[in-house]
Every structure is written in C-alpha cells, then in structure tokens.
Amino acid sequence: MRMIDLIHKKRNNESLSKDEIEFIISNYVSDNIPDYQMSALSMAIFFNGMNDDEVANLTHAMAFSGETVDLSPIKGIKVDKHSSGGVGDKTSLIVLPLVASVGVPVAKMSGRGLGHTGGTLDKLEAIEGFKIELTNKEFIDNVNNVGMALVGQTANLVPADKKLYGLRDATSTVDSIPLIASSIMSKKIASGADAIVLDVKVGSGAFMKTIEEARKLGSIMVSIGKSLNRNTVAVLSNMDEPLGHEVGNANEIMEVVQVLKGQGEKKLTELSLTLASHMAVLGGKFDSYDEAYAEMSKLIENGQAINKFKEFISAQGGNPEFVDNLDKLPQAKNHFEIVSPKDGYVGFIDAEKIGLAAMMAGAGRKTKADPIDHSVGITLKAKTGDKVAKGDILAILHCNSEDSESKTLILDAYEISNEQIESKDIVFDVIS
Ligand code: URA
After folding, report:
1. DSSP codes of every residue in 313-364
2. Which of 92, 176, 180, 217 to mutate to test the pocket of ligand 1 (most atoms within 8 A of CB)?
3. Regions of the chain with pLDDT less than 50
4. Domain named Pyrimidine nucleoside phosphorylase C-terminal: which ranges (predicted)?
C-alpha cells in the first residue's frame, strides 16, 4: 500500500477501507508517513468528508494507536463525559459528584486548557494540595471507594490524535466534522468508557457555529459510539456566551461550589443536571431521564452532591476548606470594573474574546509551556438579555497587573443593543 494512492483516492472523493485507514494511522504514528502527506490527506478529508464507516474505522484505529486504560477492576457501567470545548465550561466538576452520588462510577481523564478555553485540570490545581497525578492503583481505588477520580491523560494515550491534532492546528483542518468526531471519540474509547455523554457546544464561542453543524457532529459521534458498543448520547448546548458567571480557574471552582450548594446560575445548573441525568440513565441507575433529573436535583438540595465533591477533593490530596470559605481560594490583588458605555440591553457576549481576555491576564496559556495564575479571572455581572444603564458594571477583571489589553477586550466582547434580546435556551437538542 502506498500513502500517495490513498491521498489520491480521498482527493477523488472515494472512500477508504478499514485496512487502508489502519495502514495510515499506524504508519503515521511510527513516523513512516511524513507530515506533508498526512496534511494532504487531512485537507482532502476536510473537503470531501468521510462516510460513517470510514469515521468509525478511523476512530478505532486512533483509539488503539497507543496505550488504552483498563477499567475492568471497577464495578458497574463506567460512563464518561466530554465537552467539545467552550469558555467558562466547568460542568465536569459539577456533573461528576452528582453522578458519583447515585453510584455510577466515574474514572475521568481530562486535559489542560490551551488558547481561549480553560482545562479542568488547571481549574483543579487552583485548589491547595490537589493532585492530578495518581498511580493506576490510586486511580482505581479512588473510583471504587469515593465513586469518582479525575486525572491527567497518560502520555501515551491516543498518540495518533496528539500528532494529528498538532498538524490540523497548523494546516487549518481542525474544524472538519469527521476529524473532530474521531479525535474526541478515540480518546473516550481509549480511556475505557463503557458509555459516553457528549456536550456538543454550539455558537460563536464553539467549533460548531450552527445547530445544523452541531447536529451532524453529534449524530456522527453517537453512531461511532454505537458501532463500537458504547452507548452514546449527545447534548447540544448553547455557547453563544460564556457559561455561567465566572471564567478563570479559582473563579470557576467558586462557581462549581455555588451550583453544588444550590446557589448557582440557572442555566449552568440546568445544563449540569441534564448531562448528569443522561449519564445516570446510561449508567443503569434510572429508567427514565425525567426520574433521573428529579433525583439529581434533590442531591443538590439535600447536600449530598457538595459532600461528594468535598470527599473527592480530600481523596486527591486537596484541602476542602475552601468549600465553606471561598476566600481560601487564590485571590487576585486587583479587581477592575468594566462598565457599560450606554443605556440598553446586553445583546451578545463574545465568548472567544472573554476567553482571550482571561488568558492574556494570566488565567490561561498562550503556549503549552506558559505558567498559569490561578487567581486571575473574570466575573460576568451582566449576561445576554440583561438591562443595563450607562456606568453599570458589566464585568470585573480579577488580575495581578494592569492588564489594559484584557480590559479593552472585555468591553469589546459586550454588545449593548437598544432592544432587548431574548436569551436562548441552554439545551438545544439531545441525540441518542
Ligand atoms: N476536541 C478534541 O478533542 N478534538 C478536536 O478535534 C476538537 C475538539
């Protein structure tokens, strides 16, 4: 088999067989196929797409391109959750304690943030003492004893995705539905999930800008999951504005606590309960989604969810005192108020600009090697649809320097309109 013939086939919009896809992935990972040929193939896939069988075969070949995680020592159906990425997305840290509280084991591997989106691991490291590296035994024991554990991805998990993602990033081929679907699903399958709930973000701050595109991505991922015997549900949710009121690591941990105590923003709470309920149904704990949603809501009201969160933090070496005293989280020195330039209504908040403003002030990384300041963040006081008068506070930038560029970006992110715009629902659709 020769790579040039396979590029030629895809360029002519023919489909690739299972053997051909396996040949491509194994030879790319072992450096026998050079980046320039893989770039050409990625661009051909970008323009001509792939059929469902090709995407399932690509996912399978990528998932088994390196180490895989064996979760068989954990009893029960292991359900994983994945978000396609957004700004202010702290739902994993809300959803996992909810699901663990009803006895669905969660053994989750998460990533770090890069660019304008934050990563769950970075958020957890805002907590004093929290360890994101556990031995395999500690990881399994914690899931069996506490019901949940969350660690960084092992270095050799899905090496094909690590190489290919870097290449796509540099060749303008990231936003291809078959390539995104196989990238996400290969990581879920390699991390040992029996069932998967996907949060597919739609809107200006997401890869998928329209519901139609998101529905296509969600449907492909659900069908890949099913073809590989992993029951999969995709929730399509709004990312036209940042999720919740807080962006930044310590800020988002604070908001997680607020939601788990029943004091959180309505939409963030609703999305978290929706994802958790689908996970609990896939985990076999409830027969219906409605029953699961009602029970999940009770876990917030009766304190079980926040207690599970504290238990999880302690089990991974973290000091849980901040849960009852949020001042114990890292605090920035400066708190700059960004005010409305005129009377009106918040018409739109550009999530990408808010994410970039937080990153530039120190909450995220421009390159992989950059350090993070966990105390830096943004509080969004006004959200889409809110009425504001000239001089009202739109947002607060918490930082440790002057960060005038970030202040400008936050102000730019807010569109103040003369007419009130209805804020959209948080959950658009569910594909199963
Ligand atoms: N998230 C991933 O893990 N991969 C993609 O290709 C896009 C988003």
Report:
1. HHHTT--GGGGT-GGGS---SEEEEEE-SSSEEEEEE-HHHHHHHHIIIIIS
2. 180
3. none
4. 345-417
Q: Is residue 183 annotated as a catalytic residue, yes or no?
A: yes
Which of 117, 184, 208 gets mutated to test ligand 1 (max ligand atoms within 8 A of its CB)? 184
pLDDT of residue 233: 98
- What value, to the nearest 5°, has the Cα angle with vertex 218 and ends 217 and 219? 95
pLDDT of residue 371: 85
Cα-based distances in Å from 200 to 15, 109, 238, 275? 26, 18, 9, 11
What pLDDT, on a 0 to 100 scale, did the predictor assign at position 114?
61
The rounded percent of the chain whose pLDDT value lies above 70 is 99
**Three-class secondary structure of residue 59 per DSSP:** helix
333 is catalytic: no
| ipTM, two decimals | 0.96
Ligand 1 atom nearest to 180, measured from its CA: 6
Q: Is 429 a catalytic residue?
A: no
Helix-strand-coil percent breakdown of the chain, rounded to 5?
Answer: 45, 15, 35
Q: What is the pTM of this model?
A: 0.93
Please count the residues of the chain.
432
What is the CA(82)–ligand 1 centre distance, in A?
A: 10
Q: Rounded distance, CA 392 to CA 413, Å?
A: 16
Q: How far apart (Å, rounded) are the C-alpha atoms in residues 138 and 133? A: 9
Q: Which two tokens stand for residue 122?
A: 């970075």
Q: Report which ligand 1 atom has the smallest distance to the Cα of 174.
A: 6
What are the E-state strand segments in 113-251?
Answer: 148-152, 195-202, 231-238, 246-248
What number does the ligand 1 atom closest to the CA of 184 have? 3
Task: State the amino acid at position 152 in one-letter form.
Answer: G
Stated as kind and residue range, the H or E segment containing 134 is none
Q: Give the pLDDT confidence score for residue 2 in this predicted structure.
A: 97
Q: Is residue 168 among the annotated active site residues? A: yes
